[in-house]
Specification:
Layout: E1 2-11, E2 14-24, E3 29-33, H1 40-47, E4 55-60, E5 63-64, H2 70-75, E6 78-80, H3 93-98, H4 116-136, H5 152-164, E7 170-174, H6 182-199, E8 202-206, H7 210-216, E9 220-224, E10 227-232, H8 234-238, H9 241-248
Parallel strand pairs: 3-8, 3-9, 6-7, 7-8
Antiparallel strand pairs: 1-2, 1-4, 4-5, 9-10
Helix pairs in contact: 5-6
The structure holds adenosine-5'-diphosphate and magnesium ion (MG).
Protein name: ABC transporter ATP-binding protein
Domain ABC transporter: 2-250
Organism: Paracoccus salipaludis
Length: 250
């Protein structure tokens, strides 16, 4: 689904991404690991149109998407999760889901402005969908809670939930498990697996927790110093000398 060719992103003279090439297979849950400062988040930001590349190309389903802005990528079904914006924290969890930008490719719930009944119908549909998502994520009990009051893990689930309100093809998750307790990490993993199996979402996941990566991801791509160091199954990666060096050598 995604091909990255010889991608560079420099900051002044510093090469945060330094000639990375990789592929993300349709239907996979691909892991992206590497030491702090390896360039993982920068790579995500370039793929997701948040940062322009210094050079190199990104293709999605064979189409050149290099440097397209996030809203255009969103319409193509490419999503990157972000931490919840401040202004959303005083809204309820359900309202947060209902605020997701209108759908893609003519499917927009907001397309038709004819008559109040129509709008009321659409709002009802949106609400029903939000409730389905909350149920899927096992957080129905906090539907009315202010999003700002959620635990770290519940906020991560809400981020995933916002991806589920639209028809995503590929979702990029940056450190989805950071600061999340074991139980919720399991719920997040289950949600990712179900979205992958039942809805056909492809994922690319940055995560430090190797248990999580090992259970979820195949293949796993290892970055270090802006480059792709290795790629393979989690078990294969753990035995790779260069990978061990990159982690333990600093
Ligand atoms: P990772 O996500 O793998 O920990 P990052 O992509 O966040 O790594 O960062 C890679 C390197 O690029 C780091 O050394 C970081 O300090 C640097 N970097 C990231 N963003 C910027 C920026 N906006 N300006 C300057 N340096 C940056
Ligand atoms: Mg990072």
């Amino acid at each position: 689904m995604i091909e990255v060719h010889d991608l560079h992103r420099h900051f002044g003279g510093f090469r945060a991404v330094d000639g990375a090439s990789l592929q993300i297979r349709t239907g996979s849950i691909t892991g992206l690991i590497g030491p702090n400062g390896a360039g993982k988040s920068t790579l995500f930001n370039v793929i997701a149109g948040v940062l322009p590349p210094t050079s190199g190309r990104v293709l999605m389903d064979g189409e050149d998407i290099t440097g397209l802005p996030p809203h255009e990528l969103f319409h193509k079904g490419l999503l990157r999760t972000f931490q919840m914006a401040h202004e959303f924290s005083s809204m309820s969890v359900r309202e947060n889901l209902m605020m997701v930008p209108p759908g893609q490719s003519g499917e927009s719930l907001w397309n038709t402005w004819f008559g109040r009944k129509r709008i009321a119908d659409q709002e009802r549909a949106l609400r029903a969908r939000a409730d389905e998502v909350l149920d899927f994520l096992t957080i129905s009990h906090v539907a009315e809670e202010k999003a700002g009051n959620l635990s770290g893990g519940q906020k991560k689930l809400l981020e995933l939930g916002r991806c589920m309100m639209v028809e995503a093809k590929i979702v990029f998750l940056d450190e989805v498990g950071a600061g999340v307790n074991r139980t919720l990490l399991g719920t997040i993993a289950d949600a990712i697996i179900r979205l992958n199996k039942e809805r056909g979402y492809t994922f690319c996941v940055i995560e430090h927790d190797m248990d999580f990566i090992g259970k979820l991801c195949d293949p796993v791509i290892v970055m270090a110093e802006g480059k792709v160091l290795a790629q393979g199954s989690a078990a294969h990666i753990m035995e790779n000398e260069a990978v061990i060096e990159a982690y333990l050598g600093r």
